[in-house]
């Protein structure tokens, strides 16, 4: 894990220069991280190339409207990327092809987030009462 379980933070100027941000550099920066558990690192090592290019292009485009937005000391936190599984084949009672095996929540491929996964759990609980 690149951040040892913590969110990565990197200066925008370092991303543009193709280098990681080090803790020592971050501590001398005029902009301080608002997330105290974030650790300095290299977001580009954790992000797919296309996603990183899109983020850079977005920041530079916003800078045309909000000058300074793409400043070298602007801090970026590593975004959360989610990969969803394929939908598990099951009936309306959440039964899979394996007797007694039920698949719920995001791992089932049928929900996207806590609220829908919670509802699925409630429905399953009612079904096994």
From TrEMBL:
<dbReference type="InterPro" id="IPR036188">
    <property type="entry name" value="FAD/NAD-bd_sf"/>
</dbReference>
<protein>
    <submittedName>
        <fullName>Uncharacterized protein</fullName>
    </submittedName>
</protein>
């Amino acid at each position: 894990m690149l951040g040892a379980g913590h969110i990565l933070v990197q200066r925008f100027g370092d991303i543009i220069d193709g280098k990681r941000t080090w803790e020592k550099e971050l501590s001398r920066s005029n902009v301080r991280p608002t997330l105290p558990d974030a650790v300095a690192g290299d977001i580009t090592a954790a992000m797919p190339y296309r996603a990183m290019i899109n983020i850079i292009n977005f920041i530079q485009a916003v800078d045309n409207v909000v000058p300074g937005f793409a400043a070298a000391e602007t801090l970026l936190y590593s975004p959360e990327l989610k990969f969803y599984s394929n939908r598990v084949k099951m009936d309306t009672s959440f039964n899979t092809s394996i007797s007694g095996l039920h698949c719920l929540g995001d791992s089932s491929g049928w929900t996207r987030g806590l609220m829908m996964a919670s509802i699925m759990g409630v429905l399953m609980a009612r079904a096994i009462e």
